[in-house]
Each structure stands twice: as C-alpha cells, then as structure tokens.
Amino acid sequence: MAKGRGRGPSAKKILAAGLLVSALLAFGPSVLASRPEAPPSVRAAAARSIPHLRWTAAFVLAGSLAAAFAKGRAGGTGIPFYARIRARRRTGPEWGYVYVLSNKAMPGLLKIGFTDRHPKVRAKELRTTGVPEPFEVEFAVRDDFARRIEAQAHRLMEEERIRMDREFARMEIPAAVSLVKRAQAQVRGAMKGR
Fold it and tell me: Which of 45, 78, 111 finishes a domain?
C-alpha cells in the first residue's frame, strides 16, 4: 500500500505510469517500424497502427493526468482541491457543513461537528490508528452559517454530551438529525431578525 492519506498508488506513481504507457504506445511502433532487422510484415503492421496508438497514448496520458490531479490535490480523496478552495472564497468564513457521524466501534455515540470540507473527507480524516472502525456520515447540512449552527446544536445537546470538550453525544440518529435541523432553524430565524 502506498504511503499517505489515501489508499492505492500516489499521484506521482499514477502520473509516472501514465507517462510510461503513453510513451510506449506513441513511440514503440515507430521504433519497431524503423528497425531493419524486423520482418517486413511486422514493420508494415507497426506502421499501420502508429496513428491509432498515438490517439490512445493521448487519452491514456490525459486520464492519468486527471487522476493524478484529483488524487494529489485532494489528498487522495478524489474531490478536486480547486473546487473546495473556490467554494470557500465564494462564501463567508462561516460557510460549511454541520454533520452527524457514527462509528460501529462506538454504538450509541454520535459526533456532531463542523467542517469546511465535504463531510466524507472529514470522516476519512478522523480514521486514525486509535479508531478501529471508519466513521460514517449519517446526515449533513450545508449552510452559510454552519459554524453558528454547530454551536447552537452543541448548546441544544448539552445534556447528551459525554464531555463538554468533545463533540460526542449519546443519542439516536433521528434525534441528532432533528437536533441539527432545529439548530439550523433557530440560527436562520435569528439571522432574519437582524
């Protein structure tokens, strides 16, 4: 397995493999067609396949560049980095997601928090050596006032929280979803009153 945050080959390996395959497809038949020691039938077949293989090489190269870009710029998540940056610049500093995460290793506990990235990215970030199972996104809401919604949700779930310095609470998923929706409605109502 490759080192880094994601699984599978790194962006550099994807790009290197794409370049190698593209070079072999683009120049291999040309070299073979120009070799005098190759049989005439092989040289003729190689010469006929050159235009087709060059197009194939171009597509392989374009695909590997796109895959390497998506993997490398997003930290292995497949979500393009530039899209996340553009979204953050276009909106205010409180823009983001309020999410509800669950984990099979922690039955009855839910994590309610804020992220300015996609909640699936946040769930992957929380998967560390100290957590035996991956987190799953049960619910997420995107809002311009996500930071305030998260703070309000934490106030509403004060009695269910296991510790005040942690975002975990003992509650069922439908109750957590309802709590986040209620917090969003309260924040939205307060913002309209201004």
Answer: 78
Of the residues 78, 113, 136, which one is the last residue of a structural domain? 78
> Kindly report the CA angle at 92 between 86 and 98, in degrees rounded to 5?
90
pLDDT of 155-189, one tens digit each?
Answer: 999 989 888 888 899 999 999 999 999 999 999 88
- Number of separate domains in the chain: 2
CA-based radius of gyration for the chain: 26
Q: Contact at 8 Å (CB) between 138 and 177? A: yes
Structure tokens at 40: 């005439």
| Sheet arrangement for strand 96-103 | 135-143, 96-103, 109-115, 168-170
What SS3 class is residue 80?
A: coil
Position 9 confidence tier, pLDDT thresholds 50, 70, 90: low
